[in-house]
Design a protein that fits this description.
Blueprint: H1 3-29, H2 34-54, H3 59-64, H4 71-101, H5 107-130
Helix pairs in contact: 1-2, 4-5
């Protein structure tokens, strides 16, 4: 097994380990007890490992790991991403409205809502131009 095939097969786990380390380091930098940082690392890295180990036995795990097994699962994954983006946009806009209505600063919500909207516009243009 060469390095390229190893990284390809285990890329989801490696990403989870890297992201788990980022979360753990961020927790430790905030003065969180080390056991909580370890738990944060274990949850994120464990999710990646579990999906990688299960994806050969479960079409759902395969799709959640970003490797849908056929066109039907690919379509379901695409629809799930679209629905997730819509929920994120609604929550960000709703959070902004509620924060502003209650006299709080809604800038964090505005930034997220703006990022979602900008990403949508750029994506539509990109995929339209690309074909």
């Amino acid at each position: 097994m060469n390095l390229s095939s190893f990284v390809g097969r285990w890329s989801f786990v490696l990403f989870g380990v890297g992201l788990g380390l980022v979360f753990a380091v961020a927790d430790l930098a905030q003065g969180v007890p080390p056991i909580h940082a370890l738990i944060a690392f274990a949850v994120v890295a464990g999710y990646g490992l579990a999906l990688t180990l299960l994806r050969s036995r479960s079409e759902t795990a395969s799709a959640l790991a970003g490797r849908p097994v056929d066109e039907r699962w690919q379509d379901a994954s695409l629809r799930a991403v679209a629905a997730s983006g819509m929920v994120g946009a609604i929550v960000a806009l709703g959070g902004f409205v509620i924060a502003e209505a209650t006299g709080h600063d809604g800038m964090e919500f505005a930034i997220v809502a703006g990022a979602v909207g900008l990403a949508y516009v750029i994506s539509v243009v990109w995929f339209r131009v690309r074909g």
